[in-house]
Amino acid sequence: MSTIIKVIIQESEEGGYVAHCPALKGCMSQGETLEEVKENIKEAAAGWLESRVLLDLKLLIKKNQTTKVKKNGDRIENLRISPKLALAGV
Question: Quick one: CATH architecture of 3-89?
Fold first, then answer.
């Protein structure tokens, strides 16, 4: 199972990149390169989704959520997230 989740990637003032998923409250990650931050945020999002399923909490994913980007150069990407947990077995 996989889903597409909007991810915002920004260059960090200290170097490298930071990323967050607006639809997954508190889901963030960082990396030295774009490739690294993308892999890290995919892992963070998968963990976020798995923990919510395991804790039997309501998912906070909002369809068609819009996000205002304030800085020039911010990237908004849709990345495919594949949770490791087999949801059918939960």
Answer: 2-Layer Sandwich (3.30)
